[in-house]
Design goal:
Chain lengths: ~325, ~160
C-alpha cells in the first residue's frame, strides 16, 4: 500500500524531472568565477551615464546647429493716429485741469478739445452758476458724465451727476441730472462727485464720503454701500465687478486690499472684509510659536543628563512642563 | 563529518567548475521546487553558484553550503515575492501527461515555506533530518515538527 510519503517522493521527483533545466551560465575564463544573473551594477550605471552623455551631446549639437530663435513678432497694433469714431476725437476736461480761468463763468466748466483746435466750453443748461468737474466719457463715447456742485459760489451745497449726450460736432444735448442727496466728500479729496462708468454703460460708481454709490443712469436709482471709505474705484474691464481701493472698515491707517461689488438689476455687495484675514494671519503664527516652545522645553529637559529627580507628580495634573534653565 | 553520500563523493578538493557542472541541474530543481517558480529557481541557483565561485577556497563542505544557501535564498525570495503561489503556471512542463502537476504538487506549493522546504529536502533531495536541520539552521526536533505538520496538512488537503 502506497503511503503519503511514497506519493510525495514520486510527485516531487516527477515534477523535478519535468522541469526544463536551463543552460547553466558560463564561467568567466579569466577569474573562473560566475557572475550574478542580473549583471554587475557598474554596467548598468555605466550604461546610464553613457545615455546621459549622449543626450547632452545631441542637445548641444542641436542648439549649435539651429539658428537663433526668431524674435517675437510685434502684435498688430491698431492705427491710433485717427480718432475713434465714438467721440470723434473730442477730449473732455474741466477747467480745474487746465489753465483756463473759471472765474469768467462763475465756476468750473467742462471743455472739449481736439488736436489743433481751440478748446470749446461745453454748453449745458445750468452750468453758468454751477461748478462742473470730473468729466468722463461713457464707454460708447456718446455721453459725457461729470459732477456738479450747485449753490452759491462760496458755498456749494448740492451735488449732482450730469449726463450729457454729445454729438460728433461737440454739441451737447439735453442733460440728465441725477441729484445726489446726502453726498459728502472726504476732507482733502476731490469735492465733486466723480463718477466711473461701468463697462456696460449703465452703472456709474462714485465715492461719497465713506460710502460707495452705484448709480443707475437709466432710472436714477442710487445704491449706497456704506463703510467702504473708497480712495479709488475701478471697474473690472468687461465685467460688472467694481474694485474699490480704500481702508474700508479699518480704524487705523493701514491700507486695506481692494474689494469688489457686483451691480446688476439688484446690485449686491459680494465684498469681504479682507482685513479680517489679516487679523487671522497674525494670530496663527503666535500660536505655533507657543507650541514649538513648549515642545522644545520638554525635549531639553529630557536630554539633560544631570537632571534632578522630578518631584512626585500631582495626580490632579495629567501633564507637566519642565522649564528650561 | 559526512553530511551525505553526495557530498562525500564531491569532497572539498573538487574544482568549482566540475562542482558547478555536476550540481547545476540539482540546484536548479531544488530551488525551483522550493520556490515553485522556474525563473526564481534559475535566479537563485545562479546567485548561489556565483557566491560560491568567489568563496570557493574557503568552503569546506560545498554540498552543505549549496543546500543551505539555496534554502536561505529561497526563503528570502519567498519573503520578497509573496505572489509565488500565483505563479504555478510559470512552472515549465515538458508536456508529458505522466509528470504534470497534480493535486499533491499544488498542495506542497501551498505549504508555508519552511514546511515546504522540509518536504522538498526530505522527499526530493533525500536528506536526513540532520542535513535538513543544517540547511534550515534549526534543530533536528524542529525538522521533525515541521515535517509532521507538513504531512498533516497535506493529508488534510488531499483528503487522506
Amino acid at each position: 500500500m502506497r503511503t503519503l510519503e511514497d506519493d510525495l517522493r514520486a510527485a516531487l521527483r516527477a515534477q523535478a524531472q519535468a522541469l526544463h533545466v536551463p543552460e547553466r551560465p558560463a564561467l568567466d575564463r579569466d577569474t573562473d568565477e560566475l557572475g550574478h544573473r542580473r549583471g554587475p551594477r557598474w554596467l548598468a550605471a555605466a550604461a546610464c551615464l553613457a545615455l546621459i552623455a549622449a543626450g547632452v551631446v545631441l542637445l548641444a549639437q542641436r542648439r549649435a546647429g539651429d539658428p537663433q530663435p526668431a524674435p517675437p513678432v510685434a502684435p498688430v497694433v491698431p492705427d491710433t493716429t485717427t480718432p475713434a469714431p465714438v467721440t470723434n476725437g473730442w477730449v473732455a476736461f474741466d477747467s480745474d485741469q487746465s489753465a483756463l480761468d473759471s472765474d469768467q463763468s462763475g465756476g468750473g466748466d467742462i471743455y472739449l478739445v481736439r488736436p489743433g483746435q481751440v478748446a470749446r466750453r461745453l454748453e449745458v443748461a445750468g452750468s453758468d452758476t454751477a461748478d462742473d468737474a470730473c468729466p468722463a466719457w461713457s464707454p460708447d463715447g456718446t455721453r459725457l458724465l461729470f459732477g456738479r456742485l450747485t449753490g452759491s459760489q462760496d458755498n456749494f451745497s448740492d451735488a449732482e451727476l450730469v449726463i450729457v449726450p454729445v454729438g460728433l460736432d461737440g454739441t451737447a444735448g439735453a442733460p440728465t441730472v441725477i441729484a445726489l442727496d446726502g453726498f459728502d466728500d472726504l476732507d482733502g479729496f476731490e469735492p465733486h462727485p466723480c463718477g466711473v462708468w461701468a463697462p456696460d454703460g449703465r452703472w456709474v460708481a462714485l465715492g461719497a464720503g465713506g460710502e460707495v454709490w452705484v448709480v443707475d443712469t437709466q432710472t436714477g436709482a442710487i445704491r449706497r454701500l456704506p463703510d467702504l471709505r473708497p480712495l479709488d474705484l475701478e471697474w473690472r474691464p468687461g465685467t460688472d465687478q467694481l474694485a474699490i481701493a480704500g481702508d474700508m472698515g479699518a480704524t487705523d491707517d493701514r491700507g486695506a486690499p481692494p474689494t469688489r461689488l457686483r451691480p446688476g438689476s439688484t446690485p449686491h455687495v459680494v465684498a469681504r472684509r479682507l482685513d479680517i484675514g489679516v487679523h487671522e494671519r497674525r494670530k496663527r503664527p503666535g500660536r505655533a510659536v507657543a507650541r514649538r516652545r513648549r515642545r522644545r522645553q520638554r525635549t531639553i529637559a529630557r536630554r539633560r543628563p544631570q537632571q534632578p529627580p522630578r518631584p512626585p507628580r500631582d495626580p490632579r495634573h495629567r501633564s507637566r512642563v519642565v522649564p528650561d534653565r | 563529518v559526512v553530511i551525505s553520500e553526495r557530498q562525500a563523493e564531491v569532497g572539498p578538493s573538487i574544482r568549482f567548475d566540475e562542482f558547478y557542472a555536476q550540481r547545476w541541474p540539482h540546484a536548479f530543481r531544488l530551488a525551483a521546487l522550493m520556490t515553485h517558480d522556474t525563473e526564481a529557481g534559475a535566479d537563485i541557483a545562479q546567485d548561489v553558484f556565483a557566491e560560491m565561485s568567489r568563496r570557493w577556497a574557503t568552503i569546506e563542505r560545498p554540498d552543505a553550503y549549496l543546500q543551505r544557501a539555496l534554502t536561505n535564498a529561497g526563503s528570502n525570495w519567498r519573503r520578497s515575492a509573496r505572489t509565488a503561489a500565483g505563479k504555478l503556471h510559470l512552472l515549465v512542463v515538458d508536456g508529458d501527461d505522466d509528470v504534470r502537476f497534480d493535486g499533491l504538487g499544488d498542495a506542497v506549493a501551498r505549504l508555508p515555506f519552511r514546511q515546504r522546504a522540509v518536504v522538498v529536502l526530505r522527499y526530493y533531495a533525500d536528506l536526513s533530518e540532520a542535513e535538513i536541520a543544517l540547511a534550515l539552521d534549526c534543530r533536528a526536533g524542529t525538522v521533525k515538527s515541521l515535517s509532521s505538520r507538513a504531512l498533516a496538512a497535506l493529508s488534510k488537503e488531499i483528503g487522506r
